[in-house]
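Backbone-to-sequence.
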């Protein structure tokens, strides 16, 4: 099976991705690995988990990595948790897997 496939679900308007987030990391990285137990993709952001800064950094990083606009990325659950579900509009599951696989990790 493709890496990351269990963390990505196709929806009517795009896909959702389950993330395992580390805020306050030394450097931003997405994908930063795969958590097989949680079936989630690791994401590290340098921004602190304070006042929504980490959430904004996650949206920026995911949009940049996948080559979509910030408006196409939204956090749909886990706003105050390290486990988040992010919706991405305009891409298919296979496109996202290919982009993440090319990004490394």
């Amino acid at each position: 099976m493709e890496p990351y496939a269990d963390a990505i679900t196709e929806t009517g308007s795009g896909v959702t991705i389950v993330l395992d987030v580390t805020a306050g990391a030394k450097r931003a990285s997405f994908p930063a690995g795969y958590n097989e137990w949680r079936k989630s993709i690791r994401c590290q952001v340098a921004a602190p988990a304070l006042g929504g800064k980490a959430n904004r950094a996650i949206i920026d990083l995911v949009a940049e990595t996948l080559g979509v606009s910030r408006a196409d990325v939204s956090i749909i659950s886990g706003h105050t948790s390290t486990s988040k579900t992010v919706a991405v509009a305009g891409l298919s599951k296979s496109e996202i897997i290919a982009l993440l696989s090319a990004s490394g990790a």
